[in-house]
Each structure stands twice: as C-alpha cells, then as structure tokens.
Design goal:
Number of strands of chain C: 4
Shape of chain A: globular
CATH class of the largest domain in chain A: Alpha Beta
CATH architecture of the largest domain in chain A: 3-Layer(aba) Sandwich
CATH superfamily of the largest domain in chain A: P-loop containing nucleotide triphosphate hydrolases
Oligomer: heterotrimer
Distance between the termini of chain A: 45 Å
Helix content of chain A: 25-40%
Strand order of the largest sheet of chain A: 7-8-9-4-10-11
Number of strands of chain A: 11
Chains: A alpha/beta, B mainly alpha, C mainly alpha
Helix content of chain C: over 70%
Strand order of the largest sheet of chain C: 1-4
Structural class of chain A: alpha/beta
Number of domains of chain C: 1
CATH topology of chain C: ABC transporter involved in vitamin B12 uptake, BtuC
C-alpha cells in the first residue's frame, strides 16, 4: 500500500507553447477530501483531464496507489481506479437513470458476460442483468434517486443530475473520485445536501475524493487539504485555513 | 406447476411481440403458398420486403443505437451479394448449387467477408464523426461498386454482372422471413444486453462513456461489424433471389433509401424500422405497378413528395403543437381507452422492454464538428 | 506534352468541381446542413439553358443563372426553412427528397433520353504541339473570375462578412443584429447561381444532359468540399482543383481509367484519416 492514493510528480502540460499547467504536485492520502481551487482559467480542469487520460501530460507523471498511470487510455485509467464527473454534466441523456448507473457497472469483474453469452441469451446473461440491476438500484437508493430510476436522465432536475453523475462514477468501483465543480449552479440548501453526500460517499465507500470547487463554503466545509492553482502553477497548498490566508492566494482572487 | 407459472409470468412477453408479428405474417403467407400458390408479384414483393427489413434493422444498429451516420450500407450488401453469389457458383459444381446447404454456406461466407469490410470501415469511425463519416461510408460504397463493376469476366462478371444459381422461387420468401427473424434476434439481443447499453452510452455521450470505462473502440467496431455482416446476409439473399448480381443496383441511392427507412421508423426503434421498411417497399412497388405507361414518371415524384412532407411534418419545430395533438399514440390510446392506464408504474420491467428510447437526432449528425478528443495532440513530451 | 494538356483539362474540370463545391461548403458553413439537392440544381440549370438556347445563347446562360438563383431561394424557403432548429438528419433526408423531386420533375418534362445542349461551337487553340479546347480555357477563366469575386465579396462586403460571422457563431451573430434567415437565403442564392455557372461550363465541355446529370458531379463536388475542409471557401477551391486533376490524370491512363471514381474516393478516405477535418478545415474541439 502506497503512502498516497494519488501522487502527482511535477505534472505539467502545454498546448502550442502555452503552459496550461506546470509542476503540479498533489499528494492525497486515503480517505481524504482534497480541494483543487483557483481562479477561472487556472488549469484545474486541465489537471483533471490529465489524471483521466483525456490529455497526455507533457511533463511529469502521476501515480495511483503507487502505480504509474501516465500514458494510459481513458478507459484503462478508469479501470485502474480513477472515476470523474464533469463540469458541464455529461449523462447518457436518452437512457433511464438506472441504466446510466448500469453502464458504470459495465467493467466490474463480477458482471462479466461475453458478447456471445448475451447474443445467445445464456443463463449468465440473465444472471448478470439481474445482479447489475440490483446493484444499480442499491446505489440509487443511497443517492435518493430510486423513485426516478425509470425517468430519462435528461428529464431530471439539475441537482439530481449531479447526484446521478456521482453515482455513475462510483459504480465503476474507483479508488479515487474526481468531482469537477459539483456545487456549480446549486443553491445553499442543495450545496449543504451535496456536502453530506460527499462525506457519506467517503465514509461508506471508503473513498478518496479530489474536487474542484469555486464555492468556498463547500471547500471550507468539507475539504481536509487544498491546493491553490493560478495560471497553471501552484500558489499554495496545505490545510484550508493556511492556504486561504496565504497573501499570494488573496492577491490572486481579489487582485492587487 | 406454480414455479413454472411463476417463471412464465417473469418472461418479458412484450420483448417477443414483434417476433410473433413477423412469424404470423410468415406463416400466413406460407400457408397461402402451400394452399394454392401466390402470384409472382406477391412473391417478389415478399422477397424484397424481407430483404429491406434485414437491411433497415441492421442499419438501425449503427445509426440509431451507435449514433454514427452511414451512407454506405448498400456497399456491404454489394460485397455480400457478390461474394455469396460467387460461393454459390463455385459450390454449384461440387454440391447442388440451388440447395439449402449451398445457401447456408454462401450466407456464412458472404456475411463473414462483409463483416471484414465492416471492420475496415469501422476504423475511420474511431476518428471521424457525423458528416465526415457519412461521406467516408458513401465513398466506401462507391468504391466497392466500381471495383466489382470493373472486375474481370471470369471473376465477378464485370459490367454485365455475376450470374448466380437461383433458389427455388416459390419458397424463397420463407427463407427471407427466417433471415428477418435472425436479424431481429441478433440486433435485439445485442441491444437488450450490457453490450447494447454500452453502445447506446457511446451514442449519448462518447466522452462520458470513455470516462466511465467503456471500451469505445471495441464497441464501435462491434457495431459496425455486426451491422455490415447482416447487410452482407441481405446481399447473399439478393444473389439467390436474382439470376444476376449487378453492382449498379447497390449505389448510394439504395443506401439512402435504407437510411430513410430507419429514420422514418424512428431512430433506435427496431419495430418502427420493420414497419417503415415494409411500408416503403410496398409503396414503391405499388407505385411501380399502378403507374404504368405515361404515368410511370410520376412514381418518383410521388415518393419524393411523400418523403418531404412526412419529414417536415414530423420535425418542423413550428408544427410541434399540432403534432402533439394529433399523433398516432394519442389516436391509439383514444381507441383503446378501455384497456386502462399504461403499466408504467409497476416496476422497471415496463421500462426495460423499451429499447433505449428515441434519440435526439442532432446528436448523430453533429451541427458542430466533433473531433474525437484523442485526436488532439498536446505538445510533444519533453524527454528527460 | 500530353501531360500538360491533361493537366490543363484537369484544372478546368477542377474549376467546375470547385464552383459546385463552393455551394456545398458555404451552405454547410452557414446553415450547417448537407444540401444533397445541390447537384440537381446544376441539372436544372442545364435544362434552362436548353429551353432558352433557341432564343439566344447568352440569354440562355443568364436565364440559367437567374432561374437557379430563384430555385435555390424557393427550395430553401419551402423545404429547409420549416426545419430550421430541427435535427440535421431530418434536414438531410429532406434535401434528399428535394433531390428526387427535381430529378423526377426533369424526367416528366424532358424525358429520360439525353438531350444535346450545344451552347456554342468552339474550336481548339493550337499552340504547336499542344492543342487545348477553347471551352477548357473559358471554364478556367470563368473559375478564376468567380473565385476572385467571391473571395472579395466575402472579405469586403457587409453581407460577406455577416456570412463569415454566422458561420463562426450563429448565436453571437444574431445578437449582433445580423438577420440570420436573410443570410442563409443569400447563401443558397449564391450557391445555386454558382451551380448554374458550373453547369454551363460543363455543358460547354460535354454537351449532353439527362435528369440525373447533376448527381455524380454533385457527389464529386461534395467530396471535393470535404477534402478541402467543409465550411472553408479556399478549401473548396483546393479540393475541387485537386479532384479535377486526379480525375483527368486517372482517365488518361487506360488501365486505371475505369477505377477513376474508386481512386478519387480512396483519396478522400486517406486524406480524412490523416487529417480528419480536411486539408484546410478548422479543428474545433469539444470542451471536456
């Protein structure tokens, strides 16, 4: 067992000479809720995209549980144990809620079922379908989505769509969950609910969470540690109070 | 006994409604053949209809469920027709070329080769989307057509076409219906499995599907291969129904006609595709036989007008209100009011039989170019 | 020497393709749709020439351009405008329907037999070892003029710049007070007029016409537009010329002449695999 669930070493990327992120060093311990904050355009989502294989880092590397994952494809990284949500919600809109979660369960070994087994309707197919559905319903129960399980994802209200995205990410059985602005567009009450959900996920799923957030009430409320990015570089890191009282951080947020 | 009844009640009967419908139609027509024989024109219509249903249902997998636009479906059919026909010719010397055994072997070979082409055309689909993939598939169909058209006389008959042994005309349509059932079996079982769910997930949001761990490469290829093999099956059937296989038949107009069947049937709706393939084939043949002589020229214009009117009626945003008021569903529910409420409330069983919903069509033909993310190259890696 | 003649012929054919491709690419850029009926506008233009040829060749050409221009507007208003905001696939199918409609109308009016449309009897220009048909030269000149005028129009006129704005970002353009519907109509009008010109030029070279006259050039021009990068005006020019030259070179070699279409489409596939957005196409990416 490695000391950190996620460790990035001088992670950086540049597009056409523009350094979107450089020398990002995150060290996230097990069961930690870690915040990645910074002004708009600081490169937070870029870091997420590198960690999930959307972009290949130009420099540095990152390790999940001590295993280097740099250069893997997006699906491979997901199989290795990093799952994410998106800033602009990306659900399978024309599918029902329960099926969205079932897609998340697709690659777990306990639901393995070959194409031929499905095509010829062997017993394995029915067994897998049944167990997958049961598991998906359990997850939906936890997230309070069980009543809307047969609705199309597209028709859900915003807050529930966010929850569904988290449920789907969790269904893939990750070690590390990346949440990209989970509270965006939520009112204070919904945010409070979301904080409970995130804590719940950490405690009940034995999860480590890295999140990007602008809503400082959420960050101060649940994050154990944070890293502040600005223009792709690290401004400060450490506990929330420490980081937010750092003069550089105040300058970056409020200007001179 | 009780457990047996319990099992029976668990079967999702509504899954099998369309199989039953097709089978009943097949049995009725078979009975009529055995009783007194059907007129040539009806036999011809049945062959054509079953062939088009196989094509439409198989294309529906790529367009409706995988969400990729293909304008080259006739190209795969062309491959199947030529390869299957040639196999039958070669078998004619060895075993009886008109027999069922020869047909099955040809079918397997034709489907296999068409599937290989499906794999080849699936490769660009990993990189291209929407309109770009559409033109590539169209180009593929035309290439196949040209190559067979210019083949040597000995190999595939060249411009005059490949002469193939013909199957017993009287009963060929029964095989057509069997092929329809086979196609439905493969496509519906695929769609109603975890693999089908993965395919529809790719359609709905490719980026999210990747992030959720779906092997996009694999499933796109699976979709293309299965769809093209089945088009190959339709091609082999064509070669057995006709004494010559001519490449000119399989031009892009045919591909487009199949696409129209899929679109009018409702994207991602297999029963719809079956119905619309039947109706379109029927209208086309009827127009051909009704409008003879001077009126023959009217056939295309009527067909075109029907097409434009239906599409505008179904899709024009300004007609939305009108549509919602007067549609088939409302009509049906009015007639069958006494049946009671739809069984939506019960459990997810009811939702489960509904094959993944109708799709927002603009997610297929992207208004904006969607370059697949992996084609975006960040700067080269610094060494050291 | 034969090579040079082939090359010039290729350039001229490419010019025709480019003119048609411009219609595809402009409509794609602005209305975001594949106008499958575009090829058939060429055919309508050709028949218009046939009708008015008895009166006067020049009048015939002018009438052809005007008639196609109006036809473009009518098609847009009747068939495509009701579908604005509907799914692009629905629009595509409608375009195919319009294409069938035009073809079958031509079939009813003019019959399936080919008609001869000899606009003018042009000779050949003899330059010692090289002889080039005047029709080829006229086509080339016409292409150059059309391209130049169109480029200047798009770059400097108010409408042209509005077109660019609409193709870049329709919503932003609307907020800037640009009348989107008008711009789309104008685009269809220009595209159709260009198609008519292309039809006239190709009739100068091959003077027969049938109801399906426009189908193949239409598909080829569409291919050219995609090769060049659909939505890009210079791309359509580059793609058209490239395709024309390839076609003439292939046809010059008897062994591979029958495979010309296959080779052209193969080039398309290869180019798209190497550069998924065509030679001059812009890369747009979806933000994650």
């Amino acid at each position: 067992m490695a000391e950190y669930v996620l460790e990035t070493r001088n992670l950086g990327i540049s597009f056409g000479g523009l350094k979107a992120a450089q020398d990002v060093n995150l060290k996230i311990k097990k069961n930690e809720i870690y915040g990645l904050i910074g002004p708009n355009g600081a490169g937070k989502t870029t870091v997420f995209n590198m960690l999930t294989g959307v972009y290949k880092p130009t420099t540095g590397t990152f390790l999940l549980d001590g295993e280097e994952l740099k250069g893997f494809s997006q699906e491979k990284i997901n199989h290795k144990g990093i799952a994410r949500t998106f800033q602009n919600i990306r659900l399978f809109n024309n599918m029902t809620v329960v099926r969205n979660v079932m897609v998340g369960l697709h690659n777990l070994p306990e639901y393995k079922c070959s194409l031929m087994e499905s095509l010829f309707r062997l017993p394995r197919h029915f067994e897998v379908e049944r167990t997958m559905r049961e598991r998906a319903k359990e997850l939906l129960e936890i997230f309070g989505l069980i009543d809307v399980r047969n609705h199309l994802a597209y028709n859900l209200p915003y807050g529930k769509q966010r929850k569904l995205e988290i449920a789907r990410a969790l269904a893939t059985g990750p070690k590390l969950l990346l949440l990209d602005e989970p509270a965006a567009g939520m009112n204070p009450q919904e945010t409070a609910e979301l904080m409970d959900t995130i804590r719940f996920v950490r405690d009940n799923f034995d999860m480590t969470i890295l999140l990007i957030e602008h809503d400082m009430s959420l960050v101060t409320g649940i994050c154990d540690n944070v890293t502040v990015l600005n223009f792709g570089t690290t401004l400060a890191e450490g506990s929330v109070e420490e980081a937010l009282s750092n003069p550089d951080v105040i300058k970056a947020y409020l200007g001179d | 006994m009780a457990s047996f009844m319990n099992k029976l009640s668990k079967i999702k009967w509504n899954h099998y409604v369309n199989y039953a419908a097709v089978a009943i139609v097949a049995i009725v027509f078979s009975a009529m053949t055995f009783a007194g024989g059907l007129p040539q024109s009806t036999l011809f219509l049945l062959e054509k209809t079953t062939m088009n249903i196989v094509l439409a249902v198989s294309l529906s997998l790529v367009v409706g469920f995988l969400g990729e636009l293909s304008l080259g479906h006739a190209g795969f059919m062309c491959v199947g027709a030529y390869i299957g026909g040639k196999t039958a010719c070669l078998l004619d010397g060895a075993i009886d070329g008109k027999g069922i055994l020869s047909f099955i072997i040809s079918l397997a070979v034709g489907a296999l080769v068409a599937g290989v082409f499906g794999f080849i055309i699936g490769l660009p689909a990993l990189r291209l989307k929407g309109d770009y993939l559409a033109i590539v598939t169209l180009a593929f169909g035309e290439i196949v057509k040209t190559v067979f058209e210019n083949s040597s006389k000995e190999s595939f008959g060249g411009p005059i076409g490949l002469r193939t042994p013909r199957f017993d005309k009287q009963y060929l349509f029964i095989i057509g219906f069997i092929l329809v059932l086979l196609t439905m079996f493969i496509i519906q079982n695929l769609i109603r499995s975890k693999h089908g769910r993965a395919i529809t997930a790719i359609r709905d949001n490719e980026i999210a599907a990747r992030a959720t761990g779906i092997n996009v490469t694999k499933y796109k290829l699976v979709g293309f291969i299965i769809s093209s093999s089945l088009a190959g099956v339709a091609g082999v059937f064509y070669s057995f129904a006709n004494s010559t296989v001519k490449a000119a038949v399989f031009d892009y107009n045919y591909s487009i006609e199949i696409l129209i069947m899929v679109v009018l049937g409702g994207m991602g709706n297999i029963s719809g595709a079956i119905v619309s393939a039947t109706v379109i084939t029927y209208i086309n043949t009827q127009l051909q036989t009704l409008l003879t002589g001077d009126l023959a020229v009217l056939k295309d214009i009527i067909y075109a007008l029907i097409l434009v009117v239906i599409i505008i009626y179904n899709n024009a945003p300004s007609l939305k209100f009108f549509r919602e008021k007067y549609n088939m569903k409302a009509l049906v529910s009015k007639i069958f009011k006494f049946v009671g409420k739809p069984s939506a409330g019960k459990d997810d069983e009811s939702a489960w039989h509904r094959v993944p919903t109708k799709i927002e069509m603009n997610e297929i033909l992207s208004t904006d170019l969607k370059v697949v993310e992996s084609t975006l190259e960040p700067d080269k890696e610094d060494k050291g | 020497m034969d090579f040079i003649v082939t090359l010039v012929n290729g350039l001229s054919l490419g010019g025709i393709y480019a003119m048609i491709a411009l219609g595809y690419t402009m409509v794609y850029g602005i209305a975001k749709m594949l106008n499958f009926a575009h090829g058939d506008v060429i055919m309508v233009g050709g028949y218009t020439v046939l009708v008015f040829l008895a009166v006067n060749p020049v009048l015939a050409i002018v009438m052809s351009v005007i008639f196609c221009l109006l036809l473009g507007i009518v098609i847009e208003k009747v068939a495509y405008k009701p579908l604005r905001g509907a799914s692009p696939l629905a629009v595509l199918i409608t375009a195919i329907g319009v294409s069938y409609l035009l073809q079958s109308l031509a079939l009813i009016i003019f019959g399936a037999a080919p008609e001869f449309v000899i606009i003018a009897n042009l000779g050949t220009l003899d330059l010692g070892p090289i002889s080039i048909k005047y029709s080829t030269i006229i086509t080339l000149v016409a292409t150059v003029i059309v391209m130049t005028v169109l480029s200047l129009f798009v770059k400097y006129s108010k409408i042209g710049r509005a077109m660019v704005a609409v193709s870049e970002d329709r919503d932003a353009a609307r907020l800037m007070g640009i009348n989107i519907n008008m711009i789309i109509t104008i685009t269809f009008a220009i595209g159709s007029a260009l198609a008519a010109l292309a039809g006239v030029c190709s009739l100068l070279n091959v003077p027969t016409i049938t109801p399906t006259y426009g189908a193949m050039p239409g598909i080829k021009a569409f291919t050219a537009a995609v090769i060049g990068g659909i939505g890009s005006i210079p791309g359509a020019m580059v793609g058209g010329i490239l395709l024309g030259i390839v076609e003439c070179l292939c046809k010059a070699v008897p062994e591979i002449a029958p495979y010309t279409i296959a080779i052209e489409f193969a080039i398309l596939i290869v180019i798209l695999l190497v550069k998924p957005t065509g030679i001059l196409g812009k890369k747009r990416r979806e933000k994650v």
